[in-house]
């Protein structure tokens, strides 16, 4: 009996009805009620439900480590961009729910980019960036602009070595400080572009009970604000991935930027309690005042069953209590919440379908882990992007990727080969984890488990092929057409990709559609279409 039951679970055929009443199956994305988002551009899920409520996430897909700036009636936000360049896309909103991209702030490759801090000091905007150029030692860099739309300066190395997760604050002394992981702080010069002191311990975070299931202690993501008589320090602990109950938000306060800091009696303010919840590993929060003067918390989380989408951005109401602390008041985030009052509703997101008549590099398209000369591979022509070949497989070709935020979607694109090239369509996590199909003018090539499945090649004598990728809840089906989509051939292998995420492959990334080209020739890319599926 026990052997039979193990077999049922292994093959996915066991059901709750087949088990004794005392045995409960863990909650999964399939067994929980399906949330109902609004329908946006191309059917993309939209947080604003159009009836005065919204349903998280406010920005779907891979938008981790949100850093948020209130600038008059406008809100701006950016996120970790990791290996994508151009990177650090700035998003704009007037109501905290509907967000649209403005432009990328960073074009010079610095290696992987982790949690940054966006702030304004005087009339100048700053982004403080932890980066590891050429895979070397981490340091904090700064870029600045006189207008949020840019142009942004080249990065300045502040030489704050071995640190990540900067958080900017002006102290009661009028001096500027950066807090970093640890939790440590360092004084900056008045222009914010150099250090003016030594890195020193700032705060020993509140410690959760030892029997809580977390990834590790990992105090990180310090974000600060001044409210009333106090400085408030919002910190993430517990690890940003790993067990779903690990990541959390804690707070402390002090009347001086130099401490001492008092732990919030309500810690942790946010934490996933079980894998039955819609949102896992919730943490890395910023507090912000809403358009009508109420207060909100923005942070990231993984979606139950869809870690492949990366960490997504959530909005939760908070309330200030009589004792001068605050509490999160969102409750069950799988259900709609009232929108912030007083804001002007704007457009949400943008179309991913691209006829390549405009330059959308940085906002939509980005090379994965590019070399400094990567953009020299690109030549834009009339409704076409030509990409020169690089490398011998998707792993070393720096594919051109495009982030998505839907659980299920369909993509089509036409690829035409030039010279001795091979090209194809991928779902790409990193060089260790990708799937896809390609062609070389004679036959197809199948990429699965990040390897060439040489046994799985089909004859395809065409140098111009339209490819289709259909991802339905992490099950991927491929089609190809040699006659501009008039007829289609289904690739014989479907691929299940739910395991392609950080807990398996590291890197804190997401699974993105991508286009690769290898060899000595090039590929001409036209007519990219995207459609979210219900």
Automatic annotation (TrEMBL):
Q: Write down what this protein is called.
A: Family 43 glycosylhydrolase
Question: Can you give the residue ranges of the Beta-xylosidase C-terminal Concanavalin A-like domain?
Answer: 353-529
Signal peptide limits: 1-29
Organism of derivation: Asticcacaulis currens
Q: Show the PANTHER family listed in the entry.
A: BETA-XYLOSIDASE, XYLOSIDASE_ARABINOSIDASE
Which UniProt keywords are present, listed alphabetically? Glycosidase, Hydrolase, Signal
Q: What is the lineage of its organism?
A: Bacteria, Pseudomonadati, Pseudomonadota, Alphaproteobacteria, Caulobacterales
Cite the InterPro entries for this sequence: ConA-like_dom_sf (IPR013320), GH43_C2 (IPR041542), Glyco_hydro_43 (IPR006710), Glyco_hydro_beta-prop_sf (IPR023296), Glycosyl_Hydrlase_43 (IPR051795), TAT_signal (IPR006311)
* Superkingdom, taxonomy of origin: Bacteria
Please provide an example of a Pfam family that matches this protein in its UniProt record: GH43_C2
Return the SUPFAM superfamilies for the record.
Arabinanase/levansucrase/invertase, Concanavalin A-like lectins/glucanases
Q: Which family does it belong to?
A: Belongs to the glycosyl hydrolase 43 family.
């Amino acid at each position: 009996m026990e052997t039979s039951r193990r077999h049922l679970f292994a093959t996915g055929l066991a059901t709750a009805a087949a088990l004794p009443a005392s045995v409960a199956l863990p909650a999964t994305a399939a067994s929980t009620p399906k949330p109902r988002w609004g329908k946006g551009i191309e059917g993309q899920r939209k947080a604003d439900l159009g009836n005065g409520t919204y349903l998280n996430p406010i920005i779907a897909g891979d938008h981790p480590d949100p850093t948020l700036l209130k600038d008059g009636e406008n809100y701006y936000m950016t996120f970790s961009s990791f290996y994508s360049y151009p990177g650090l896309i700035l998003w704009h909103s007037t109501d905290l729910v509907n967000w649209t991209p403005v432009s990328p702030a960073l074009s010079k490759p610095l290696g992987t980019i982790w949690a940054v801090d966006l702030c304004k000091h005087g009339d100048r905007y700053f982004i403080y960036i932890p980066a590891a150029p050429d895979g070397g030692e981490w340091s904090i860099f700064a870029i600045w602009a006189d207008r949020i739309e840019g142009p942004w300066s080249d990065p300045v190395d502040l030489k704050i070595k071995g640190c990540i997760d900067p958080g900017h604050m002006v102290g009661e002394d009028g001096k500027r400080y950066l807090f970093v992981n640890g939790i440590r702080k360092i004084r900056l010069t008045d222009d914010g572009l150099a250090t003016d002191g030594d890195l020193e311990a700032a705060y020993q975070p509140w410690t959760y009970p030892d029997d809580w299931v977390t990834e590790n202690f990992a105090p990180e993501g310090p974000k600060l604000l001044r409210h009333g008589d106090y400085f408030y320090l919002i910190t993430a602990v517990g690890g940003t991935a790993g067990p779903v109950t690990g990541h959390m938000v804690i707070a402390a306060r002090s009347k001086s930027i130099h401490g001492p800091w008092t732990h919030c009696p309500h810690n942790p303010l946010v934490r996933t309690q079980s894998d039955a919840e819609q949102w896992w590993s919730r943490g890395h929060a910023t507090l912000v005042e809403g358009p009508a003067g109420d207060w909100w918390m923005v942070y990231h989380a993984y979606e139950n069953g869809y870690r492949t989408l990366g960490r997504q951005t959530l909005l939760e109401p908070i309330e200030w209590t009589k004792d001068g602390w605050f509490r999160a008041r969102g409750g069950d985030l799988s259900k709609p919440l009232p929108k912030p009052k007083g804001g002007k509703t704007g457009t949400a997101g943008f179309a991913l379908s691209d006829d390549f008549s405009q330059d959308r590099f940085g906002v939509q398209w980005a090379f994965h882990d590019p070399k400094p000369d990567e953009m020299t591979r690109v030549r834009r022509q009339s409704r076409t992007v030509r990409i020169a070949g690089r490398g011998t497989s998707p792993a070393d070709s720096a594919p051109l990727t495009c982030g998505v935020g839907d659980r299920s979607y369909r993509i089509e694109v036409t690829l035409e080969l030039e010279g001795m090239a091979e090209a194809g369509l991928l779902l790409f996590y990193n060089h260790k984890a990708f799937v896809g199909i390609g062609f070389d003018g004679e036959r197809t090539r199948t990429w699965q488990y990040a390897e060439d499945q040489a046994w799985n090649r089909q004859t395809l004598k065409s140098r111009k092929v339209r490819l289709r990728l259909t991802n339905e809840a992490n099950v991927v089906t491929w089609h190809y057409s040699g006659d501009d989509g008039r007829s289609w051939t289904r690739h014989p292998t479907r691929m299940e990709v739910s395991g392609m995420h950080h807990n398996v492959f590291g890197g804190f990334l997401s699974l993105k559609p991508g286009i690769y080209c290898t060899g000595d020739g090039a590929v001409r890319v036209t007519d990219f279409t995207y459609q979210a599926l219900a």
